[in-house]
């Protein structure tokens, strides 16, 4: 049912333009199925059945609404796309059409803020309840309900037609979808530290939806790249947290705790995608993750390959985090001095002003050169700049470790 | 991103300019402003939490005695310049948005209906999740 719900919602939206009413109609159809199917049996085409019932409900709602407006002498009525209430003809013609992608394009429209798009996607595509989404983001339910409402209103007001984007817009629109899914994954993965298991579901939800997108667009290499990146990152989850709930960075993780089957799947996906010759940012990030995940130990890591991949990634987009990671890789290949020199160019970058990671990377590189005084100072500075408790604790520990060493 | 916005009321002014001394309609206007402000935050999908705190008359300062029991003195500290009147927790996309919200809170009306232009402290809230690998 969870896979069918967004498909049905997408189908209803394709025919009628009202998001909220469509959601209600789909809920009613799902309820009807839950009541009728146990006795009558599951129909041969469950999706078609649900779409038929949902559209009929939509028709009912609209007829009621139209009658009400006529009574109120409102002549600016929007008539539905179809005949009122007659079952959509095209179900019979395209029984396998999956409107999940249409729904995703809408929920991830570039006009929406990230927070809105994330909330709406989790609600409409993920099928999470408002309460579940609110818990995941640690806000009250009323606040999250508003975010979702506002997202729907934004879509309506933007005048975006409820149809698949044209070939010309498709690349950009798909990129918005992938970006939202990536943000959802990150939100879930970032909170997989420590014992707070609830929010882990976000990462797996992102993987589930990305898989669905891959099934619908099996030839798209960036989609494959994103899925691979998620799998290869999520594979390391169990090794991230130490016995006291502390953060363990990749270099120090116990690789026996990594999920081998996720790594195998991720490596296969990215290898296959790259073999097609096109290259995109998610594919490159996935390739980097694959190089890390395939190394038997930290010492076995193929840093020259990682450096080459970061160099490519750096050329694709002007992202200071990529530049930071590139500097680390360069340090691993050419020595810490080289890494520090590359960091100097970031001092003037406003996007990184006061950002903890610049200081944290610098600290790590100073430690590599043996300049412990500078390293301690930078670790402490970084600790004061991060808003993450596990990261702050990690950075304070590094400073303390070096300070003890010096005594 | 979560931020805490703290409304700091000058301590010296509390007795002379605090709400107990305002005309009733000014108190109503202030409370109405806060209700509207909170409603706007909910509607914007940014509201997490808000509390008003009781005044310095009810404030106690507690330290542990050597035996671990509480030593309680009437507060606030003599050196305090301000007292926390209340706070908001908001969830926003950028620090700039947090500052905008704080500026709006700062215009809450006081005696005579004039904006108080109170100082609002804005601080990021620490999270138990990571932000990026260290």
Provide an overview of this structure:
The complex is a heterodimer of chains A (407) and B (134). Chain A is mainly alpha-helical and 407 residues long. Chain A has a domain at 1-95. Helix content of chain A is 68%, strand content 0%. The N and C termini of chain A lie far apart (63 Å). Residues 74-89 of chain A have low confidence and may be disordered. Chain B is of the alpha+beta class. Chain B has a single domain (2-124), classed as Alpha-Beta Plaits (2-Layer Sandwich). Helix content of chain B is 29%, strand content 31%. Chain A binds chain B through residues 113-116, 119, 137-140, 142-144, 146-147, 150, 187, 190-191, 193-194, 196, 199, 247, 249-250, 321, 356-357, 360, 382, 386-392, 394-395, and chain B through 1-2, 42-49, 91, 93, 124-134.
Count of discrete alpha- or pi-helical segments spanning 4 or more residues of chain A: 19
Q: In percent terms, what proportion of residues of chain B is strand?
A: 25-35%
CATH fold annotation of chain B: Alpha-Beta Plaits
Oligomer: heterodimer
CATH homologous superfamily descriptor of chain B: Dimeric alpha+beta barrel
- What gross morphology of chain B would you assign? flat
Number of strands of chain A: 0
Note the beta-strand portion of chain A: under 5%
Question: How many beta-strand segments of chain B?
Answer: 6
């Amino acid at each position: 049912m969870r896979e069918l719900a967004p498909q049905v919602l997408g189908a209803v939206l394709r025919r009628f333009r009202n998001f909220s009413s469509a959601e209600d109609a789909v809920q009613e159809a799902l309820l009807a199925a839950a009541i009728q199917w146990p006795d009558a049996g599951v129909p041969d085409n469950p999706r078609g059945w649900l779409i038929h019932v949902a559209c009929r409900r939509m028709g009912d709602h609209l007829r009621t609404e139209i009658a009400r407006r006529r009574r109120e002498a409102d002549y600016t009525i929007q008539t539905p796309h179809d005949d009122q209430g007659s079952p959509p003809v095209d179900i019979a013609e395209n029984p396998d059409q999956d409107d999940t992608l249409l729904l995703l394009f809408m929920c991830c429209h570039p006009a929406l803020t990230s927070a809105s798009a994330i909330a709406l996607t989790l609600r409409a595509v993920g099928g999470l309840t408002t309460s579940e989404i609110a818990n995941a983001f640690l806000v009250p339910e009323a606040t999250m309900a508003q975010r979702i409402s506002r997202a729907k209103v934004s879509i309506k007001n933007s005048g975006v037609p409820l149809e698949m984007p044209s070939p010309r817009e498709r690349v950009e629109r798909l990129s918005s979808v992938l970006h939202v899914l990536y943000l959802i994954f990150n939100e879930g993965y970032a909170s997989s530290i420590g014992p707070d298991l609830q929010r882990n579901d976000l990462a797996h939800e992102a993987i589930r939806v990305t898989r669905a997108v891959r099934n619908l667009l099996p030839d798209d290499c960036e989609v494959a790249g994103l899925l691979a990146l998620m799998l290869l990152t999520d594979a390391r989850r169990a090794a991230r947290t130490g016995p006291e709930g502390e953060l363990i960075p990749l270099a120090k993780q116990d690789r026996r705790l990594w999920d081998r089957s996720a790594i195998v799947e991720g490596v296969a996906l990215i290898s296959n995608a790259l073999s097609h010759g096109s290259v995109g940012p998610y594919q490159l990030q996935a390739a980097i993750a694959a190089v890390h995940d395939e190394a038997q130990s930290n010492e076995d890591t193929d840093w020259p390959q990682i450096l080459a991949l970061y160099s490519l990634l750096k050329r694709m987009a002007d992202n200071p985090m990529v530049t930071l990671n590139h500097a680390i890789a360069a340090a691993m290949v050419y020595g810490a001095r080289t890494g520090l020199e590359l960091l100097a160019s970031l001092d003037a970058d406003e996007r990184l002003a006061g950002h903890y990671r610049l200081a944290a990377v610098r600290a790590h590189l100073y430690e590599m050169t043996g300049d412990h005084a500078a390293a301690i100072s930078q670790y402490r500075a970084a600790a004061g700049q991060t808003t993450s408790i596990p990261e702050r604790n990690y950075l304070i520990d590094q400073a303390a470790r070096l300070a003890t060493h010096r005594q | 991103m979560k931020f805490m916005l703290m409304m700091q009321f000058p301590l010296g002014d509390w007795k002379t300019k605090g709400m107990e001394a305002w005309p009733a309609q000014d108190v109503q206007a202030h409370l109405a402003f806060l209700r509207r402000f909170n409603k706007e935050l909910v509607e914007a999908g940014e509201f997490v939490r808000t509390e008003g705190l009781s005044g310095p008359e009810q404030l106690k300062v507690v330290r542990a005695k050597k035996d671990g029991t509480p030593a309680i003195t009437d507060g606030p500290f003599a050196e305090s310049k301000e007292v926390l009147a209340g706070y908001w927790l908001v969830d926003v996309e950028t620090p700039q948005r947090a500052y905008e919200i704080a500026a709006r809170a700062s215009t809450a009306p006081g005696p005579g209906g004039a904006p108080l232009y109170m100082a609002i402290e804005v601080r990021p809230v620490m999270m138990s999740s990571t932000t990026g690998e260290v």
